[in-house]
Amino acid sequence: MRNIDVFKRHLRERRAVKIIAGIDNFDIESVRNVTKAAQLGLASAVDVAASEEVIKVAKQNTKLPVFVSSVEPFKLAKAVQWGADAIEIGNFDALYKQGMEFGADDVYEIALETMTLTPNGVFTCVTVPGNISVQEQIELVGKLELLGVDLIQTEGTKQGAINKATSAQEFLNLAKTTISNTMEIAKHTGIPVMTASGVNADTAPLAFAAGASAVGVGSAVNRQETQIAMINAVRKIIGSIAYRDSFRRDLYEANQHLLVK
């Protein structure tokens, strides 16, 4: 089974977890640590910057599918040649800090050009800007669905993406917009939705409850100071999802017991 097929299965089971090293992270040691943490923490995929060296390091340190993020179609096409298992238009957080803006038309044009340059069958994810209206997001997703995009990623507002959350309350505040965007988009598309921005062990179950099939986790993992701390952060997220599934099974069994009575 190909790496990306395992990720697709996790999507269908609504338990996929993608660990994000960063669209602007070209620090080889950092990428190596994040990638190893994703592997050892039992995540579903890792997401790295569009660089041949970065992709090589990621592939050497994990058997997980490697997503490559960029907003440059040519770089995404090259990433496929360099061994990327999936490509992603986004993540935008780091680019907002540089003063860049992305509207619905911008994202659609990037997606169209990217899919023209890449071979058929390449797994493609597109981030929908969180700073445009919900109606614009829904309309953009409809157009992306017609293009054949495989996965939609949501995010919070641009202002929220720039903030560096540290406490549980800050993560919840950051996550609430992307979770509400997930809820709205999931109701209007057949494409799986991945929730990103402010996702950690506390907010991941809320994203899945809102209709997500996956979560994208960046700061909660890659800002940890040690490899062990990164692995523990990933495992806490996986554990929070497993607890959710266990609760659902227990609830189902309890209901079945009541029906038998």
Secondary-structure map:
Layout: H1 3-12, E1 16-20, H2 28-40, E2 45-49, H3 52-60, E3 66-70, H4 73-81, E4 86-89, H5 93-97, H6 104-117, E5 123-127, H7 134-147, E6 151-154, H8 158-162, H9 168-186, E7 193-196, H10 204-209, E8 214-217, H11 219-222, H12 227-260
Question: Describe it for me?
Answer:
- This protein is α/β, with parallel strands linked by helices and 261 residues long.
- It has a single domain, classed as TIM Barrel (Alpha-Beta Barrel), CATH 3.20.20.
- The chain is built from twelve helices and eight strands.
- The chain has an eight-stranded parallel barrel, surrounded by seven helices.
- Helix 2 (28-40) runs parallel beside helix 3 (52-60), helix 2 runs parallel beside helix 12 (227-260) and helix 4 (73-81) packs parallel to helix 6.
- The longest helix is centred in the C-terminal third of the chain and has 34 residues, at 227-260.
